[in-house]
């Protein structure tokens, strides 16, 4: 008959020293758990706050280097990175100019920046005087010469307007030819009236040598209006010939000038 097995004695549990609390960890989510976490992170938060405070104190106590500022640079309170960048950007042209030329001495001050005078508009009489054909550069401009120059400019402007009205009358004659081809006599007569108005304006602005030909054109337009309903057979030929005569007069005046 087998002998019964003997039980092994249990190992003794080490007892904690007297006076020390039993170690226990708070459960997550409880107030004790967050207090432990807050105690652990408090030194780091305090260090960060002290660092920020010291940085602001240094920026406030250290004076701004006014001797680095150049004319025209914006003033910035405090000694910050943005201020240093502004100083570098503002002093770059001066440093580049100093490196290109002779070096400044220790006690010498940099030369002030040149002041550019504002550009003023040239008076009207000087612009007219510049168009005058002066014999020499030292010839003074007299009042009589200025009056002559102004009169020449006005005459040239009148000739340009006369040429403009002549070209407009020629284009209106082309419209009259187009209306005549479709047998629209009323439209043709209306266009001939506008041609007469353009020729009147050209006559007013024309020079003495052009008044004779323009008067002849006006008389021909009147004859065309009278013969429109009586003899319309060769009307297109007469309109085309009159239009070519007007354009020829414009070309002659342009080549003459």
Overall outline: elongated
Helix content: 55-70%
In sequence order, what are the helices and strands, one letter per element? HHHHHHH
Mean pLDDT: 71
CATH domain class name of the domain at 143-256: Mainly Alpha
Question: What low-confidence regions span 5 or more consecutive residues with pLDDT below 50?
Answer: 91-108
The CATH architecture of the domain at 143-256 would be: Up-down Bundle
Radius of gyration: 51 Å
CATH topology of the domain at 143-256: Four Helix Bundle (Hemerythrin (Met), subunit A)
How far apart the termini lie comes to 153 Å
Largest sheet properties: none
Give the total of beta strands.
Answer: 0
Detailed description of the structure:
- The protein has helices at 31-61, 81-100, 124-129, 143-181, 185-205, 208-227, 235-256.
- By secondary structure, the chain is mostly helical.
- The chain has 7 helices and no strands.
Name its key features:
Four Helix Bundle (Hemerythrin (Met), subunit A), 257 residues, mainly alpha, single chain, 7 helices, 62% helix
What's the quick description here?
The protein contains seven helices and no strands. With 257 residues, it is mainly alpha-helical. Among the domains are: 30 residues, no CATH class; 114 residues, Four Helix Bundle (Hemerythrin (Met), subunit A) (Up-down Bundle).
Topology of helices and strands:
Elements lengths: L30 H31 L19 H20 L23 H6 L13 H39 L3 H21 L2 H20 L7 H22 L1
